[in-house]
Write a structure and sequence with these properties.
Elements lengths: L5 H9 L5 H20 L8 E5 L5 H9 L5 E6 L2 H13 L6 E5 L13 E7 L8 H11 E12 L6 H9 L14 H14 L12 H11 L3 E12 L5 H5 L10 H8 L2 H17 L3 E12 L10
Parallel strand pairs: 1-2, 1-4, 2-3, 4-5
Antiparallel strand pairs: 5-7, 6-7
Length: about 300
C-alpha cells in the first residue's frame, strides 16, 4: 500500500506479526467466514452490495463474484489507504467498472442513497463502533425493501466474567503451572498492566454480545433477524515468538513486544522470553474464541432468510 494508517498497517502487518504461516491460517479461517456469511445473504445476479468497513476487500470481492456481470459492490471504509488498495485491486482484476468506493464511517453513510442497495455486509466492523444502533439504522435506511444485512462480528463480552479472566490469563501460558512458576511474577505484572492501560481502550469491542445485536437490529426496524453464535475452544497452534512480539490484537492497541517493553527491564524481558518462548512455540494450550453471524431483513422478509 502506498499510504498507511493504523487500520491498513494492522491488516498488513501487526495482526499476524509478519509470520506467513499465521497469515495463511488466518486467511483460511476468514475465507470460511466470508463464504458462510455470503451464502445466507441472498446474493444473486444483478444485486448491489454495500460492504461497510471493507478492509482489504475480502467480503466485497467475494460478493462481486456472486452478483454477476450486472451486479456491483460499493466499498465503504474510513481508511483512505484501504480504499486506495481496494481500488487498485479492482483495477488489476478488471472489475473496476462494477465497483465504487466511498469514504465513510459505519454510523454515517450519508454518501449512500436511501433504499439503493440490496445487501449490506460487515466483517469485524461494529466492534469498533460506539453507536451501534445508529449504524444499524443507517444500514436499514440504505437497504431496499426486502434487502438484507449480513453481519459477522467477534464477541468479546466483558460481562462473561466466568470466562474472561481465565482465558485472558492463559493467552501466554497457564500462570499456575510449574512450567511458568519462574516467571509468575512477570505474568501477573503483565496482566495487571494490560487490564489497567489497554482493556478499555476500545469499550465498543467488549460491551455487547450476539443477543444485543439481535435486539439492536429489531430496534432499527428489521423485520426478520437470525443469528448464529460460534464458540470454539481449541489448542493454540504453535506460534513464532518473534512474530508474536510484533502482533497486536487490534489496530487500537500496541504490539505485545511494545507492551512488554513498557513494563519490564532488559533482564526481566530476557527472563520472560527464556521461559515462555518454548511454551509459545510448542503450542497446544487451550484457547477460547467466540463470534456471531447475524442476518437481518428489511420488510417484506425475503424467501430463504430462514433455514
Amino acid at each position: 500500500m502506498p499510504k498507511s494508517d493504523k487500520w491498513s498497517q494492522w491488516l498488513a502487518e501487526t495482526r499476524f506479526g509478519g509470520d506467513s504461516k499465521t497469515a495463511d491460517m488466518l486467511m483460511r479461517f476468514l475465507i470460511q467466514v466470508r463464504d458462510h456469511l455470503l451464502k445466507n445473504a441472498g446474493l444473486e445476479e444483478g444485486k448491489v452490495v454495500l460492504d461497510v468497513g471493507a478492509g482489504e476487500g475480502l467480503i466485497g470481492f467475494g460478493a462481486l463474484e456472486l452478483v454477476g456481470t450486472t451486479g456491483r459492490v460499493i466499498f465503504s471504509e474510513i481508511s483512505q489507504a484501504l480504499l486506495d488498495f481496494d481500488r487498485s485491486a479492482a483495477e488489476q482484476i478488471g472489475v473496476l467498472d462494477r465497483c465504487s468506493f466511498v469514504k465513510a464511517e459505519a454510523e454515517d453513510l450519508s454518501g449512500i442513497e436511501s433504499e439503493s442497495v440490496d445487501v449490506v455486509t460487515t466483517r469485524s466492523v461494529l466492534i469498533y463502533v460506539d453507536d451501534k444502533p445508529k449504524s444499524l439504522r443507517e444500514f436499514f435506511r440504505v437497504l431496499k425493501p426486502g434487502g438484507r444485512a449480513a453481519l459477522y462480528e467477534p464477541i468479546d463480552d466483558q460481562r462473561m466474567s466466568e470466562f474472561s479472566e481465565y482465558w485472558r490469563r492463559r493467552a501466554w501460558a497457564d500462570p499456575d503451572s510449574e512450567e511458568t512458576r519462574p516467571v509468575g511474577d512477570l505474568l501477573e505484572r503483565f496482566t495487571t498492566h494490560w487490564e489497567t492501560h489497554y482493556r478499555h481502550v476500545n469499550a465498543a469491542m467488549v460491551n455487547f454480545n450476539e443477543r444485543d445485536l439481535v435486539q439492536m437490529c429489531v430496534a432499527a426496524g428489521f423485520a426478520g433477524v437470525r443469528t448464529e453464535l460460534y464458540l470454539n475452544v481449541a489448542p493454540v497452534p504453535a506460534m513464532n515468538w518473534d512474530a508474536l512480539m510484533k502482533t497486536s490484537g487490534n489496530p487500537l492497541i500496541p504490539t505485545n513486544g511494545e507492551v512488554i517493553g513498557e513494563i519490564f527491564s532488559v533482564e526481566e524481558r530476557e527472563r520472560f522470553e527464556k521461559h515462555l518462548r518454548p511454551i509459545v512455540e510448542r503450542g497446544g494450550r487451550p484457547w477460547r474464541t467466540q463470534s456471531s453471524f447475524t442476518w437481518a431483513a428489511k420488510a417484506p422478509i425475503p424467501e430463504g432468510l430462514w433455514p
